[in-house]
Amino acid sequence: MNSTITYIIWRIFQVVPTLVIIILLAFGLMKLAPGDMADVIASQSGGASPEYMDEMRHLYGLDVSLWRQFGNYLHSLVTMNMGYSFLYNAQVSELIFSRLPATLLLALTAILFALIVGVLLGIIAARYRGSFLDGFISVFSTIGFATPLFWIGLLFIVVFSLWLRWLPVGGFSTVGAEHSNGLSYFLDILKHLVLPAFSLSLFFLSVYVRLTRSAMLDVYHQDYVRTARAKGLTEWRVIFRHMLRNAALPIVTLTGLEIGGLLSGSVVIETVFGWPGIGRLAYDAVLQRDINLLLGIFLLSSLLVVAMNLLIDLLYVALDPRIGRRRS
């Protein structure tokens, strides 16, 4: 069998124990949390009779053995029935999947912007290393790396929404915009997306700048680069045609590692801007101790991280087939 295909199959099978650990961890966290769902509902309602508490425990399957609860938990995962959210009075799976598109739109916009602009700025900094431009880009990336996300978001709101009045303060769209024609609604969503996406992307953009600059300088004096220059290719053609491909592996690695940070960062940004995504949902669930909702968000976020890391590993093979041959 082809070594690359062997590596891909082996890597897919490696995901299985990771998923098992995630499932066990989620169940363990639910059991280790102080109180149970009945206690939380009672505290939210200001108290409840013992009979009502017993009824709630029976309703949520908390009055059976731990093994039976784990079996019910596995069954709920298979059937995509992750329980009921008392906070929103709705099924957890319906809530999560209704908020998922907004979070994916925000996260993908942020990571694409950070990747494209960060890599370009890193290439420019490496190309003109030691110059004023290199120093300016380095200072910019350091500031972006060190500044907290919530502070960036609040600063952008003050400057672009309150002072300049260029962009809306927050939300997904203007009230009533969904009833307008498709193009107007789309443009309204984009207008609301600018500030949260740029705020979320700034940290990751700064990391891409630093990593790309370092990776480009590592290959700047390699033999194949000298050969390309000796053939008369322009410097920019050497950079984009030869150097960038060989510097791409650490950039791809970072993209996989940043998925978890992107999801955690979305909690902060969605809360600051009132963006109706999973991050805001998680924030509300933590405040109200909605255990079922928190558990569902944890599982989905973990699965997204695992899936993205698997995709990144497969991209490795596409960029450098030798990786598949070495690991198969």
UniProtKB/TrEMBL annotation:
Keyword Kinase: no
Bilayer-crossing regions: 12-30, 102-124, 136-164, 193-211, 247-273, 293-319
Cited SUPFAM superfamilies: MetI-like (SSF161098)
Ranges where the ABC transmembrane type-1 domain occurs: 100-316
CDD domains associated with the record: TM_PBP2 (cd06261)
Position of the signal peptide: none
Location(s) in or outside the cell: Cell inner membrane; Cell membrane
UniProt KW ATP-binding keyword: no
Topology with respect to the bilayer: Multi-pass membrane protein
Sequence similarity: Belongs to the binding-protein-dependent transport system permease family.
Protein name: Peptide/nickel transport system permease protein
Organism from which the protein derives: Biostraticola tofi
Lineage: Bacteria, Pseudomonadati, Pseudomonadota, Gammaproteobacteria, Enterobacterales
